[in-house]
Amino acid sequence: MPYPLTDSTDLSNQTALLTGAGGGIGLAVAETYLQAGARCLLSDLSPTPNNATAALLERYPDTARYHACDVADLDSIDRLINATLDWTGGIDILFNNAAVFDLAPLLDASFESYQKLFDVNVKGLFFTLQKVARTMVDQQRPGRIINMASQAGRRGEALVAHYCATKAAVISYTQSAALALADHGIRVNAISPGVIDTPMWDDVDALFAKYENRPLGEKKRVVGEEVPLGYMGKPEDICGLALFLASAGSAYVTAQTYNVDGGNVMS
Description:
- By secondary structure, this protein is an alpha/beta fold.
- It folds into two domains: about 210 residues, NAD(P)-binding Rossmann-like Domain (Rossmann fold); about 35 residues, no CATH class.
- It is built from eight helices and seven strands.
- The protein has a seven-stranded parallel sheet with strand order 3-2-1-4-5-6-7, sandwiched between helices.
- Strand 2, helix 2 and strand 3 form a beta-alpha-beta unit.
- The radius of gyration is 18 Å and the shape is globular.
- Belongs to the short-chain dehydrogenases/reductases (SDR) family.
- It comes from Saccharospirillum salsuginis.
């Protein structure tokens, strides 16, 4: 169901740049921003949009575009920003969502896994933030940056050390960037999802099945049942907060990381 819109969530004449928007949370938030009137540049690693992204582009031919980007490549981030500026002339909102996942026992966690996770989840996120923030400062108008953290950034997990560390870094960068950019009228916040039923969870479940000797599907079922509300979230459950943080309704909110996790983390 579409998220109900009010005047305070009107994004008309705003440009949003979304990374990791080829599916799951990123695609759901892109649709919400488009419904709210924003122009959206959707990006993901694939050279061409997948079927779900292409369908969204067809529904919003005038206000949605796609541009491939590998956020681990700084030149690729520059090309993404330039493509957005060439299209709309400015960037008002960054939904900084691109991320990858891996897990392994601590004693077996590899450098290759470490490098992959930190290249995308930390380096990619930070330099996308920095480069877009420079553009926003040059524009001399308010901007909003929304980083995607995770409940994994709130505490360590025995099998998920690298990933947890990357998401803890996202929370820290959110706070530092918010303080650094406040004088420029740029607000920086983060969203910390819990277990959200996205296509990535099939890969997560398979990894837990391997290392915890579980049947496929069991980990996904168990983590959903352990949520205080009793079920895994859906990508649409992130959209309300993502819209609030992008809109005028959150004008006095910055440096915060909000849990959207069914009660898993209380803070």
